[in-house]
Every structure is written in C-alpha cells, then in structure tokens.
C-alpha cells in the first residue's frame, strides 16, 4: 500500500478526480498570513528569536506551554485551570505516541495494546515499532463508543495469561523515577473519531477511566479534532462553538475520585491526551502537545530523543506561541475553520441524505447535536463490499475513498464489530468544496450499478475483487 498522497485517479475516466480519501486540511484554509505575522514578530525580536533557533527546553517552549494551557482551560472549562506543568510540547500526535510508548511501556511486561476499532490505520506501525506487533487487540464500538464490557473481559483473560507466564516485572526497560511500564495501553480517538466519526459518551469515558485504573492501563487519546466542531443541524443558528461539549478523558482522570494523587495511586495517572496543530494550523508545522498529570508530562519530556536535542519543533513552537498569545490562532479556528469545515460537512451530509441513504447506506450516531472532525463513516447495504466500491468508484467515476478493511487492527478481526468489509471512510476536508456533493453523486451511481448487478446475478466485479483484483487500489 502506498502513501495516501500518492493515490492517482482512473486511467480511463474523463471525469475530474475527486479525492475523498486524503485526510489533509484544505489548502485554502491554511493560515499562511497568520503564520507570516507570528514568525515575523518572533524573528525581529532577538530576545525571542535566538532561544527559538537554539536547542529548546526538554518540555518545550515555556510560552507555548502557558498559552496552550490557557486555551485548553477556556475551551474545556475544567474546575481548575490547566497548568503549564501538565503540558509537554511534542513533534505532533504521532511522534508523541511513539515517545509515550518508549517511556511508559515494556514490550514484554505490557500485556497488550487495545485499539478501538475501526482504528487510525497509521498508528499500527508505531505500535509495531515499539515491539507490540503480536499484541495488538481490537476493541469494537457500539453507539456510545468503546464496548467497555468486551474490553474488560479480554483484559481479564490477558491478566490471567500474564500471571500464568509469571510476567510480573518489566523485562527490557530500566526502572526510572520519571517513567513506568503500564500493564496495558488503550488507544482511541474519543471525539469525532478518525475513522468511525463517532464521539464517545460521557458515561463511557468515565467507565474507561475506572477500568484503566483497575488494570494499570494508560489510555492514550488523540484529541486532535476537538476544536473542529459545529452544530449537526443542516440549518444551524450558529456556525461555531467555542466550548467543548464533553470533557476529555484526561480531564475526567484529573478529578474523578481524587485523580492521580488519590490514596494508593502513583501520581502518573491513567490518561495521556495528544493534541496537535496539524488539523487546525498545518501538519507541516510538526508541532503538538501532550497533556497528563504533572508527573506523566515530565516523563514525556525525558524521552531520550528530547533529552538529546531538547523539545522538537522549537522554532515553530515559538511561532505558535506568538499566534496564541495575540489571539490570532484562536480567532482563526472559531471564525474561519469551524464555519468553513461546517459548511463542507453540511454540503456532504445533504448529498448523502439525498443520494445514499435511500440506497440503504447508514451513518453512525445520527442524533448528535455537535459534530466535527474531517471524516464521515459509511456502512454499505449488504452484501456490498467497501473494497469493491472503492475500486469501481476509482475506475468508473474517478472518485477515491478509503475502504473499511484498512482500518482493521492487524491480526484481530474475528469478533463482531472488528472487521469492516462493508464500510468506507470519506473526507470532506481536503477536496474543493464544490466537488463534495458531486463526489457523493458519483458514489451513488456506482452503488446503484452494484445493486442492479446483485439483483440480476451479474456482479462480476464482486467476484474479481474476491480473487484479489482490487489489491492495486492503493
């Protein structure tokens, strides 16, 4: 499978390529003027510019940490302000996922990595690089998000095996005061999930924190879409929302029953929140943040790669600190990004309601008042297959989508709700806005053809795909 950015369209269709696969921000919504102003302000002031161009502190630029903490406090409204000590600047969510695994896991002692499925597919290699390629487990979702009872049953089995194997101490990681090896890792995208589009309910978030504490698990959440939210109504009264509708798991862990400092706890906590500027400012900045307890945040900053060169992305971190301090970035998110992406979402959903729902296509969590992110998850009517639709949509209509199988956790697809052969993911962020409805219309044309062929028994494309002819889609 090649990179998503390498996807090319049909070799035979004369229609313009519509890329509903690529999960990148729209080029028209990149804040180049905002960054030009912020970088100019930083570079003209040598008292800021010289530290910005040198090795940064392990935990990252202090001004960015303070300004991120301030924004998070205003957006999530926790009962106490988010402190600078809870924030560690990172090279983005993916880079920090790798750092968290370096500091807080042991490839033997850590029993499993539990991944909510369907899952962000590019995380799999990060887990594999950390030694967990044989320990990845899929956890299905229901309408509230993670299936907590399934996760509990499977963790109990995992614990029983660990006891049988006498797996009681870390085997490869040295004991360090600023780190620890958790017994389990749980990975999820709780809000506007990539790819399932779901938002985990408050009840499930609380249950997950309780479970993580019970079994010494670290829940790593990619909270990268939280700021990109808007009303779900196709005729909204407001185009942007400047307060989060739900607390993050890291907020719940902070306060629930005494938090990480409760009696008997070790102070690290059981959650780590990955934030990123990639979706709201530009992935090329390679800058994000991690939030957790003070102790966990400090542990992240002590990753060997950070200790060697200081915090990653020091220069761009200083640019972003300036953009936040002036309020320019916050205003950009609320005044431009939320309305623009909301318009794109509404245009696509209206097309889905008109073109796809009558054909039997289903959307998850249709009763939400607030939606957001970049993606929409579509479940096809049986017996249509996502891989076949993806191949035929590309070949016949020059529109590309992501087939559901690529979001399956490798090696764990037997349990119901962990395989996604009847699903596809579509993105409304990258493609030109005026092409979104046409992309859905083209998908509808292909689905109708597939249904007609099923009805007449002439679905030769389904047979070909089953034999592997769709393998070159990527």
UniProtKB/TrEMBL annotation:
Residues 55-443 form the Aminotransferase class I/classII large domain. Transmembrane segments: none annotated. Pfam families: Aminotran_1_2. GO terms for molecular function: 2-aminoadipate transaminase activity; pyridoxal phosphate binding. SUPFAM superfamilies: PLP-dependent transferases. Keywords: Aminotransferase, Transferase. The lineage of its organism: Eukaryota, Fungi, Dikarya, Ascomycota, Pezizomycotina. The keyword Oxidoreductase does not apply. Gene3D superfamilies: Aspartate Aminotransferase, domain 1, Type I PLP-dependent aspartate aminotransferase-like (Major domain). This is Valine--pyruvate aminotransferase.
